[in-house]
Amino acid sequence: MIDKSTIKILILDDEPFMLKLLARMLANQGFIHVVCCDNGKDALAQLNVESTRPDLILLDLNMPGMDGIEFIRHLVECQFTGSLILVSGEDERMLKTTERLVQAHKITVLGYLQKPVKSDALLAMLAQWSPPSEAVPVKPRKTYSSDDIRSAIARCELVNYYQPKVSVATGAVIGVETLVRWQHATDGLIFPNQFITVAESSGLIDELTRLVLINAFNQAKLWQQSGLDFRVAVNVSMDNLASLDFQDLVVDLATQVGIPPHKIVLEVTESQLMRDMRVSLEILTRLRLKRFHLSIDDFGTGHSSLSQLRDIPFDELKIDQGFVHQAWKDDTLRVIYDASLALAKQLNMEAVAEGVEDRQDWDFLRQTGCDLAQGNFISKPLLALEFEDWIEYWQQRIKNDLLVDNRG
Questions:
Q1: pLDDT tens string 189-219
Q2: CA-to-CA distance for 270 and 309, rounded, in angstroms?
Q3: How far apart are alpha carbons 236 and 280 in whole angstroms?
Q4: Treating both helix axes as pointing N-terminal to C-terminal, what angle do 92-104 and 68-77 enclose, rounded to 10 degrees?
Q5: CB-hemisphere CA count at 13 Å for 190?
Q6: Are the CB atoms for 239 and 206 separated by under 8 Å?
Q7: In order of start, what are the domains of the chain with their CATH numbers?
Q8: Best label site of 5, 62, 249, 382, fewest CB within 10 Å?
């Protein structure tokens, strides 16, 4: 419960009527420290004095002179630690874009209100406000050298985790995505964003990928022998696709372990442009001919685009998590999600929705007919030894939480 008698609120809007309306709404709710400004310069003067610096700002975007976007930049410069509520007559896409900008600047944004503002909507947003917590110093992320990574590969410190992919229609476990982690002797579990780029730039990515493939294929064989017969996906760097030897590596490893090619999915993420399209295209086409599955990962981001769908024989499209989570309530995300799903279906590709975080996301996928789902709502990435227990737990969840329609 916030103390309305102590919170300082600043309203910045160039419309006198809107200033009066918002001030009256706040007064009716018991807020007594409210300052109104009709221009950015006067508002910044309030921010520059400790005694008048607001805890919360209601900010209009479209103002003459200093607009709301420029004002946000000044908030960053003066190290504003309070919260924002965006108030505007602009369309929802503009408001959402501005909300993301504020979040990128690490300023707390409680949300946005479209004009004309309704009292109950303002009150609901104010209820989310809380005093800023003490800033915790951010520990700089440790960097690792190519020698560190070379040593990790030699010592077999790279460990595969596996995140399930399940059928949206039936809940059945269809496959897993292999996610490599570095189990460091002193620093604990290290995630790929701290070592993959270094491995690529230092020429170690082929060696790293080879180790991940060996471990994933061996684990797939163990699961197959225990009756868990699903597809295992492995991420492939564009650097892996720079040499024709990569195709032979994948084929030879699968043959040695005894894994049918159709049980292997190679997920290609274009974090960088292909240096030689001919080599990459030959490798991927030959692998597809041998019945390995090919997946375009993080579709719609980076360089993963329509041209790759045109040029490469993918049979799986992974809709990036940024277009999946909360698409059920965001019109812009919904349009992008729908377009991606329609593309997959029209090209006879399997669609996988990444970033399924909650029940609303799951129900949305069911309603829209997506094929497969992956995300923390289903399971976080697991060690192989945790998998059988998780499957039993997942099957119980399907029944108890009615995650799929078992009628008929």
A1: 999 999 999 999 999 999 999 999 999 999 9
A2: 12
A3: 11
A4: 10
A5: 19
A6: yes
A7: 8-126 (3.40.50.2300), 146-400 (3.20.20.450)
A8: 5
Q: Are 161 and 381 in contact (CB under 8 A)?
A: yes
AA letter at 91:
D
When the pLDDT of each residue in the chain is averaged and rounded to a whole number, the result is 91
Residue type, 37: C
pLDDT in tens, 141-176: 889 999 999 999 999 999 999 999 999 999 999 999
CB-CB contact of 156 with 185 (8 Å): no
pLDDT tens column, 23-60: 999 999 889 999 999 999 999 999 988 888 999 999 99
> Rounded to a whole number, what is the largest CA-CA distance in the chain?
76
What pLDDT was estimated at residue 92?
83
Q: How far is CA 275 from the centre of its chain?
A: 27
